[in-house]
Write a structure and sequence with these properties.
Length: 432
């Protein structure tokens, strides 16, 4: 297989992106020509890194596998491998249903995948990778797995127990990323609040972030997925007092009703959640608070849903994502609750919450008109350059559109004056 082309297709979350990028580096070091293109069906060997978290993601993974099976049957590709979360969860079923795939691998199977391709794992290169997105930002995974027992979540069954990466290893990878030109570093984990408890017997996220700030190599550092229970409060002054640390707090509460939080097996109550959220609002003025919610979880009656709607209307999250409940095998909810809420009601509840958020977002965005924000440019699309403020993360949050006549450069920062606001987008022009 030497000198053949290998195409790695990545589906799902940013953690999968990191896994694929590390694998790409290993494969490239083994002498292969590499591609990262979902549309390329003439690329020799194809490896699909799948997502198996919720039903929609599983369907996307299956559809992608079947598309490349057809390409293999038409002799447009030579070999097809499937890795990642879907393969970890359903390896036997996939082998039986789609035998055309050459081999299935789960998560944490890099050594086996490389062996299949005729090469050995280069452990000295595990902190390096080939970036597949825009070169100016990168995700940095600080841990693997999760020790929480949320009723709806299959991640612990897929990815295993929480394993923190040593601080020194994370710093080494950060230094490598800075040398590649990364200007925005995005720390990711299934639960960033927990970081360090398994390895250091204390919450080590504030210490890790402090060390990353001290190396002064990134213009922005962004934190993802700070679990509300046992929130590391030492992060509050760090976020407030360090301009390089984005005033952006992603804190997934999932619900606000005490009844639902108990059924979801979350380890925080409504009062604890409210106290934390309002503390963040008070102590970090102007910070964007982002959350995710689940609509239609077993046990959610109109009463609990109305309680959630009222809270969303009252608190006015700066950023909000809503998901319809997915009844997933290997979860507490699957084994103990009936999925009794019809899909159309789940979808209707998602729409109702997003309609509330649409109005909140428009009102908040209107207050930005006339103000100047520091914006990083991600790409050009048609007649606009597309950028983000520190209050927005790639792919999931709103963007700033600047007319292409201003001839900006991808990866650079500009001061942008906001001229127009829509529900989930801002428009602006550069100012000197």
């Amino acid at each position: 297989m030497k000198n053949k082309k290998i195409n790695i297709i990545t589906l799902g979350c940013s953690k999968n992106i990191v896994d694929s990028e590390v694998l790409l580096k290993q494969i490239h070091a083994g002498g292969f020509s590499i591609v990262n293109d979902q549309e390329n069906v003439r690329s020799g060997t194809v490896i699909i890194n799948t997502c198996g978290f919720i039903n929609d993601a599983k369907e996307e993974s299956i559809d992608t596998i079947l598309r490349f099976v057809k390409a293999k049957q038409a002799n447009r590709i030579s070999s097809l491998y499937v890795i990642g979360c879907l393969s970890e969860r359903y390896k036997d079923e996939l082998r039986a249903e789609i035998p055309e795939v050459d081999r299935y691998f789960g998560v944490n199977s890099m050594k086996e995948i490389l062996g299949e391709l005729g090469m050995s794992l280069r452990e000295e290169m595990l902190s390096d990778r080939i970036l597949t997105g825009p070169p100016h930002y990168a995700y940095l995974k600080i841990s693997e797995g999760c020790d929480r027992s949320c009723a709806f979540c299959a991640i612990p069954a897929i990815r295993g127990k929480y394993v923190s990466r040593p601080v020194e290893e994370i710093i080494e990878e950060a230094l490598i990323l800075s040398r590649k030109g990364v200007r925005e570093l995005i720390l990711i984990a299934q639960d960033s609040s927990y970081y360090g408890l398994d390895l250091y017997r204390e919450q080590k996220l504030p210490g890790l972030v402090h060390e990353l700030l001290n190396i002064e190599l990134f213009e922005w550092i962004r934190l993802h997925y700070l679990y509300p229970a046992n929130f590391p409060v030492d992060m509050i002054p760090l976020i407030r007092d360090n301009p390089a640390l984005c005033s952006y707090i992603e804190i997934p509460i999932q619900h606000i009703s005490d009844k639902m939080l108990r059924l979801m097996k979350r380890s925080h109550s409504r009062k604890e959640t409210e106290n934390l959220l309002y503390k963040l609002r008070q102590e970090i003025p102007g910070a964007a608070i982002r959350t995710t919610l689940i609509a239609g979880h077993p046990g959610e009656t109109e009463r609990e849903f109305n309680e959630l709607k009222e809270f969303v209307s009252e608190f006015k999250f700066d950023r909000l994502g809503v998901f319809a409940y997915s009844h997933e095998e290997e979860t507490y909810a699957y084994n103990n609750y009936k999925d009794e809420i019809p899909d159309e009601i789940k979808k209707s509840r998602v729409s109702e919450l997003m309609e509330i958020q649409r109005n909140i977002s428009l009102d908040l965005n209107k207050t930005s008109t006339g103000k100047v924000f520091r914006v990083i440019i991600d790409r050009r699309e048609g007649d606009y350059f597309i950028g983000r403020t520190e209050y927005d993360s790639p792919e999931v949050d709103q963007e700033v559109l600047i007319p292409a006549e201003h001839n900006l450069k991808q990866g650079n920062f500009y001061n942008i004056k906001i001229t127009q606001a829509e529900e989930f987008d801002l428009f602006g022009i550069p100012v000197l």
